[in-house]
Amino acid sequence: xxxxxxxxxxxxxxxxxxxxxxxxxxxxxxxxxxxxxxxxxxxxxxxxxxxxxxxxxxxxxxxxxxxxxxxxxxxxxxxxxxxxxxxxxxxxxxxxxxxxxxxxxxxxxxxxxxxxxxxxxxxxxxxxxxxxxxxxxxxxxxxxxxxxxxxxxxxxxxxxxxxxxxxxxxxxxxxxxxxxxxxxxxxxxxxxxxxxxxxxxxxxxxxxxxxxxxxxxxxxxxxxxxxxxxxxxxxxxxxxxxxxxxxxxxxxxxxxxxxxxxxxxxxxxxxxxxxxxxxxxxxxxxxxxxxxxxxxxxxxxxxxxxxxxxxxxxxxxxxxxxxxxxxxxxxxxxxxxxxxxxxxxxxxxxxxxxxxxxxxxxxxxxx
Length: 367
What we know:
The protein is mainly α. Helix content is 66%, strand content 0%.
């Protein structure tokens, strides 16, 4: 056994142990929900592939890896259930398993045949069609589902501005967006290098070893971030759920609720709560959540995020110019106004005013 084989076995062993353990932890996670169970299946799929590859180093169990066909779909399903306020599995997800079943059968049938050969990939033998079908369908699966996942995350980042007045990694899913983009980049690069080996001479890149290393990376990434991820959307209790969720407001009610909403901000300064969400506001107004959204969209022409942070910015502007606050730091004023982080305070303030809070204070206060 040469150094290459030892390295490959070590990576496979680490990947199997990490994926299997992480999958168990996701199932045992306190208050585990559907997204956690989907992620557990994804991790077990990696563990299964690692285990089969380990056995294949000595025995011919399967002709080629089949688990990669579930990576893309499970990534998409995980993100889709994570960003849904009512997560559930769709019936059509079953159809996405058909390529897995088909190639699983073929992998067993041709377990002793050299299907995935790179040096003679284009050789005119009976297995050439299977090689091409495997490579093309796998590439379409990985890249297609990665793009679909990124699109869903992008829509989510816009949607949450109707619900939250603040941002965080667990709400915006910045970590998941990074993973979906890097997933696409890594596998696109892997496919490009694999095809380069097919057509170029003296190019000895091994996509299987590189693929195993990438899987170990994603196993760690998903197990760490996935375990820490909580539910995104604020949950309503049964008593709080409106009886007629789809009923809209009449114009006279929109005007009345708009005045109450403004009073809640200007008199009670509710925007100062750093983790304020639309459910909190709806509870204070004793109305369904979607009524608040309707008022903001139709009457004020803005989303919840913009509405609340405009109040925070205006208060911060006033307090930055007030000599009574000269003993307070800029960050302290931002926190008092309701911002939950320095970065969000600086970013939103500069976007709205054109200056950072520090520059705004220096510009407007005479020495």
